[in-house]
Design a protein that fits this description.
alpha+beta, 5-stranded mixed sheet, binds adenosine-5'-diphosphate
């Protein structure tokens, strides 16, 4: 009995123990689950907050994206507008500069002749005033030709006629070219250039312009008794493919002049940039020389550099590719046509007149003629002499055209007479009248009888566009010596 109850006791104890363990396990898993639930809830609400934050960020990003697209669109529009304005500006500058050149040459010549005393005695004060006027006109001419260069470069109309150029010869000639300005400032010029330096592949006129711009500055910004050194040496540069070596010639122009402050050196190649402390405006500069030089060097595939120290001097160097048998740049007929068209697109005064006349002729279904006059004698005259003679001729021809809407236009070195409503016979009659008038007036060019080449074109049979009509007239020029006019 005693043993049985002991067994029962053990069984009961075991059951109670098992129950306890079971209850404990239950309680533990219950607690664990609650804890997990709690943690899940926290995590869930955290996730919810993050999700809301993400949504807010996404909305913000979408708004920023919209703003960016809008700004991009506006920037695009503004860029196009700026491009258009820039193009307009270049065209305007080019047209104005062309139109200013002729009257300026005439003013200059007139003032010079008066200042020299050729047109009669003048006193010293008058001479001084006139010389100042010549200086002003010279400055204006420089500005105009610089502006024309810039407009040509900016509009992409710069044409390089590249061939092999003997750079040593060009640099060695500087001594003679700069003789007077160097003597005036007692500047010594050393040209350290070996005769056997390789030829370069360049447009000789543009190369001369680069060197002149640098030399002019070196003289201008040197003090009295300064020294200018011109060097040329070859330089090898690895090509982008890292296999071939490209050979360049590096030209340096250094002076012992004012020097350029470090902080100004970056901007010195910008258009119109001048250093105030150099009082450059009094030295008659335009601030365009270096920017033109840089564009010209880069158009040749070279680079331009500056090293300078204030108060000590400056060195400008530039590189040009060595001539290695490259093919000369050709001006094919097509390219010339293209150039002709592009020049015309620059809308000089003549093109505008022709466009207007064509418009009227088209609307009213009438014809009109133009006469192109080229003066053969001009071949032997200097630039300014041509301009003066052309102006005289224009005045004479003005007397031969009778109707108020007939126009006589100077175009480069030629005259073009535009005769609205004149058919081919009408054009021929005006041509005859011009020759008779010139003959009667006995007008001569430098004491020689005038030899003209005259071509005519009539709208619409010889062309329907300004350049077509001009081309027709220029392609059909006939020799017309003035004294044989009446025959
Ligand atoms: P410009 O000489 O017609 O003013 P540039 O473009 O040739 O125009 O030169 C811009 C400016 O750079 C000059 O006005 C001058 O201040 C400075 N500069 C150019 N060359 C030199 C030089 N050799 N020494 C000192 N300053 C120079």
């Amino acid at each position: 009995m005693g043993a049985l109850s002991t067994v029962n006791m053990y069984i009961l104890g075991g059951a109670i123990f098992t129950l306890l363990v079971f209850v404990l396990i239950l309680a533990f898993s219950f607690l664990r689950e609650r804890k997990l639930d709690k943690m899940c809830n926290i995590k869930n609400s955290e996730l919810l907050v993050s999700q809301q934050e993400l949504q807010a960020a996404q909305t913000e990003l979408l708004a920023v994206n919209d703003e960016l697209s809008f700004a991009y669109e506006r920037l695009n529009q503004q860029t196009n507008e700026l491009r258009r304005l820039n193009q307009l500006k270049s065209e305007f500058v080019s047209m104005v500069s062309h139109e200013l050149r002729t009257p300026l040459a005439i003013i200059k010549e007139g003032v010079k002749l008066t200042a020299d005393g050729t047109t009669g005695e003048i006193n010293d004060t008058q001479r001084e005033c006139l010389n100042m006027a010549v200086d002003g006109v010279n400055r204006l001419s420089r500005l105009i030709s610089d502006l024309l260069d810039v407009s040509r470069i900016e509009s992409g109309r710069l044409q390089l006629a590249k061939k092999s150029v003997n750079i040593a010869k060009l640099l060695l000639g500087l001594k003679e070219n700069y003789k007077t300005p160097l003597e005036n400032k007692k500047i010594s010029l050393v040209i350290d250039v070996k005769e056997n330096i390789p030829f370069v592949f360049a447009d000789v006129d543009k190369l001369a312009q680069i060197v002149t711009n640098l030399m002019d500055n070196a003289v201008k910004f040197s003090n009295e008794n300064g020294k200018i050194t011109v060097t040329a040496k070859t330089q090898e540069v690895m090509a982008v493919d890292n296999n071939t070596k490209l050979e360049y010639v590096e030209v340096g122009v250094s002076d012992t002049g004012l020097g350029i402050p470090r902080e100004e050196q970056e901007r010195i190649f910008e258009k119109f940039y001048q250093i105030g402390s150099h009082l450059t405006r009094q030295s008659g500069g335009t601030g365009l020389g270096l920017s033109i030089a840089k564009s010209l060097v880069e158009a040749h595939g070279g680079k331009i550099y500056l090293s300078s120290e204030l108060g000590k001097g400056s060195k400008f160097s530039f590189t040009l590719p060595k001539y290695e048998g490259q093919k000369e740049s050709e001006h094919s007929v097509k390219a010339e046509d293209q150039l002709f068209l592009e020049e015309r697109q620059h809308k000089n005064y003549l093109t505008l007149v022709l466009e207007e006349t064509i418009k009227m002729a088209f609307i009213y279904k009438t014809r009109f003629s133009l006469i192109n006059i080229r003066v053969d004698n001009f071949k032997d005259l200097a630039g300014f002499e041509k301009e003066i003679e052309l102006k005289k001729l224009e005045t004479q021809v003005q007397h031969c055209v009778r109707r108020p809407y007939d126009k006589v236009v100077i175009d480069e070195e030629e005259l073009v007479i535009v005769l609205p409503e004149a058919d081919s016979d009408g054009g021929k009659a005006v041509e005859r009248r011009i020759l008779e008038t010139l003959e009667k007036s006995g007008v001569k060019i430098k004491d020689q009888k005038i030899w003209l080449k005259i071509g005519r074109a009539t709208y619409p049979e010889n062309g329907e566009k300004p350049h077509e009509l001009l081309k027709f007239a220029k392609d059909n020029l006939q020799d017309r010596p003035v004294l044989e006019a009446s025959k």
